[in-house]
Write a structure and sequence with these properties.
This protein is mostly helical and 103 residues long. The chain is built from 4 helices and no strands.
Length: 103
């Protein structure tokens, strides 16, 4: 596996070929969603989102360590807001558009 030199942040820099193992069901689902040509872009975007989530979790943990835990009522409010936004029809259409754009 050859990674290009440079201080590239997540989501930046030239593309490089790597070998990864994925479950057959995930491979099939990705190909059904974006086709063979959009496969790498889809996986790259998924990896970038996971890195963002990991960084966010680390920031939240650092904040809790410094300021104390987030009150349960605020966590529940945030979860409800996330559920309402996630199920919004206009976001469902947008998500589909992005998947087709990548192919």
């Amino acid at each position: 596996m050859s990674v290009p030199e440079g201080p590239f942040p997540p989501g930046e820099g030239p593309a490089a070929k790597v070998s990864v193992s994925l479950r057959a069901g995930n491979i099939r689902a990705i190909k059904e969603r974006v086709g063979a040509r959009g496969f790498s872009a889809y996986v790259d975007a998924a990896v970038e989102r996971q890195i963002e989530r990991d960084l966010l979790e680390e920031a939240l943990q650092a904040n809790e360590n410094e300021s104390g835990p987030i009150p349960q009522s605020l966590k529940e409010e945030a979860q409800e807001l996330f559920r309402s936004v996630k199920s919004a029809p206009e976001l469902q259409e947008d998500r589909g558009w992005r998947a087709h754009e990548a192919s």
